[in-house]
Design a protein that fits this description.
33% of the residues lie in helices and 24% in strands. It is an alpha/beta fold and 246 residues long.
Length: 246
C-alpha cells in the first residue's frame, strides 16, 4: 500500500488530504471519501485503506481546512458539553455545499495529475454531514462523478437552496443512499420523501433502509457500531464502485 498526506491546492488555500492506493496494478480509479462531522482521524484513514486494498485511489480530505490546520479534534468531540464538541461545531455550522463543490473539483484535478490515478469516472461517498456533499457532487459534475453514496447523510431534503434533492435530475451516474432506522438527522419521513423524489426524477440508484441501527453504525470506534450493517455498507459501496468505476 502506498500512502501519503499532501496539500491539494484549492480556490481557498491548501487542503490537507490523505491519499492511499495499491502499490501494484495501477493506475486505479479515484474515489473521494468525505468525512463526517467529527473530522479527520485514524478511524477514517483505516476506512480509506480498506477501500484502497480492493483497487482504488482514495482521497480523504480535511474539509475543515478553511478554519486552519488545527481542525483535528479529541476523542470527546461527540460528548455533549465538551470543549472539543463546541470547537468542532463552531466550524461545522459554517459548512455549506458550494465551497465543498469547489474542493471536489480540486481533488478531481489533483487525481488527474497523478499517474497513480486512472483518468475517467470518479466515485464519491460521504458520511453524516458529507452525505449531501457526495450526492450534490454527482449533480454538479455529472460527467465525472459516476457513482456517489451517502451513509446516514444528514438532511438530504431540506429548505436550503442548495439541498441535494433539488438537483437529482442532473445526475447521470448511480446513487446509493443508506439510512439508519434510528437517526434524528435523517428522520424516516424524510427518507420516504427522498424515495419519491428519486422515482420522479428517474435517478438511477437505491435508497436502502438499515433496520435496528443508529446514525454512525459503520464507524468501528463509535458506540453504535453494528458489524453486520457495517459490512453490508462495504458490500454495497464496493459493488457500486465496481459497476461504475471498474
Amino acid at each position: 500500500m502506498i500512502e501519503e498526506t499532501c496539500d491539494v491546492a484549492t480556490r481557498d488555500g491548501a487542503m490537507e488530504t490523505f491519499i492511499c492506493h495499491p502499490e501494484r496494478g495501477g493506475p486505479h480509479p479515484p474515489v473521494l471519501l468525505l468525512m463526517d462531522a467529527p473530522g479527520i482521524r485514524e478511524e477514517l484513514r483505516d476506512m480509506a485503506r480498506r477501500l484502497a486494498t480492493v483497487g482504488y485511489y482514495v482521497l480523504l480530505p480535511n474539509l475543515y481546512y478553511r478554519a486552519g490546520r488545527d481542525t483535528v479534534f479529541g476523542s470527546d468531540v461527540l460528548e455533549p458539553g465538551s470543549a472539543e464538541r463546541d470547537r468542532m461545531r463552531a466550524v461545522r455550522t459554517k459548512m455549506t455545499i458550494p465551497p465543498v463543490m469547489d474542493d471536489i473539483a480540486a481533488m478531481i484535478a489533483f487525481a488527474d495529475g497523478d499517474r497513480a490515478a486512472k483518468r475517467g469516472p470518479v466515485g464519491a461517498h460521504g458520511y453524516c454531514m458529507s452525505g449531501p456533499y457526495a450526492l450534490a457532487a454527482a449533480a454538479r459534475y455529472p460527467d465525472r462523478i459516476a457513482a456517489a453514496a451517502s451513509f446516514y447523510g444528514t438532511w438530504l431534503v431540506s429548505d436550503a437552496e442548495d439541498s441535494p434533492h433539488l438537483s437529482l435530475g442532473k445526475v447521470k451516474g448511480e446513487l446509493y443512499v443508506a439510512c439508519a432506522e434510528h437517526d434524528e438527522l435523517a428522520p424516516l419521513p424524510m427518507v420516504e420523501e427522498l424515495r419519491g423524489l428519486f422515482r420522479r426524477a428517474g435517478t438511477a440508484g437505491e435508497i436502502e433502509f438499515y433496520p435496528g441501527v443508529h446514525h454512525g453504525f459503520a464507524f468501528p470506534e463509535r458506540w453504535c457500531y453494528d458489524k453486520p450493517a457495517a459490512e453490508r455498507h462495504w458490500e454495497r459501496l464496493i459493488a457500486l464502485y465496481r459497476r461504475r468505476l471498474g
